[in-house]
Write a sequence for this structure.
């Protein structure tokens, strides 16, 4: 499912692919990202097979754009190793998102080359603060690889 | 010789950042920004990549984050990053690469070596303050940093 946000803004949007089995996480994040400075286009897949179909632009995602960032639900952690060992996609930052995430799990994810791990807030205010921090660091401070589809 | 900038908030443990930088002026610039921002961060400086490896091998407390300048005399940032990622005892530590370059090949090369993020070095003090605040807002207040080794 493709849900572009702010499609009329002049700056090319940052493409974020959310790989998470639950639609509501994507919906809450979409609401929070509406308030940030950077235009964002948010896409959603529910499982590992769809994630790689999206990245490889195979049916039904043959018109998909390369994401600038992947947010990976902890239910789909096995995909992390594939993502980070698959050379065309290994440079895409992967942020592991979970409602409960221990520092031990974060250590495991980082050892498997996750770019960051975040406890996804379950309230609207917390989600807005998260979106703002994401914008400040990843979209306005860090440099991402130029997207060939931009 | 590592320098330390203690920045603690009451009843709250600061995070420890190891910053490898061979240009003293750049190190002092960041130190001043952290002091001005009153960031909840303890900064430790080393002068090159070998200093990072020695620090990680010898210090009792692992850093929570590493800032790695790409172009340093001696062992540079990319080689140091590879060595950190190849050593299971250090591989989990987040590494943010700092560089004057905004070339796509440099950015991609660092991400392919499993840098956690790539940041172009701030040039002005307001930019450096914004960098410090972005680090604090995301890496301290939102991210779950990995559990370090207790030795």
């Amino acid at each position: 499912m493709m849900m572009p946000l702010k499609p009329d803004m002049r700056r090319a949007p940052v493409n974020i692919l959310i790989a998470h089995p639950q639609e509501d996480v994507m919906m809450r994040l979409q609401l929070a990202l509406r308030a940030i400075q950077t235009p964002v286009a948010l896409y959603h897949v529910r499982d590992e097979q769809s994630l790689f179909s999206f990245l490889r632009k195979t049916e039904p995602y043959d018109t998909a754009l390369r994401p600038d960032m992947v947010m990976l639900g902890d239910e789909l952690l096995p995909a992390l190793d594939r993502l980070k060992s698959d050379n065309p996609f290994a440079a895409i930052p992967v942020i592991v998102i979970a409602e409960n995430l221990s520092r031990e799990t974060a250590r495991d994810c980082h050892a498997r080359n996750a770019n960051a791990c975040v406890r996804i807030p379950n309230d609207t205010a917390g989600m807005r603060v998260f979106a703002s921090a994401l914008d400040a660091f990843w979209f306005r401070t860090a440099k991402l690889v130029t997207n060939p589809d931009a | 010789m590592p320098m330390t900038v203690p920045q603690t908030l009451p009843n709250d443990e600061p995070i420890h950042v190891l910053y490898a930088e061979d240009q003293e002026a750049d190190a002092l610039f960041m130190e001043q920004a952290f002091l001005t921002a009153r960031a909840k961060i303890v900064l430790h400086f080393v002068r090159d990549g070998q200093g990072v490896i020695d620090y990680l091998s010898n210090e009792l407390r692992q850093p929570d984050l590493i800032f790695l300048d790409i172009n340093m005399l001696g062992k540079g940032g990319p080689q140091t990053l590879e060595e950190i990622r190849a050593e299971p005892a250090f591989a989990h530590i987040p590494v943010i690469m700092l560089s004057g370059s905004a070339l796509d090949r440099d950015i991609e090369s660092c991400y392919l070596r499993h840098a956690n993020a790539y940041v172009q070095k701030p040039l002005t003090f307001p930019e450096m303050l914004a960098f410090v605040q972005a680090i604090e807002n995301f890496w301290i207040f939102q991210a779950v940093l990995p559990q370090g080794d207790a030795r």
User: Anything to note?
Assistant: Chain A has six helices and six strands. Chain A touches chain B through 38 residues (CB under 8 Å).
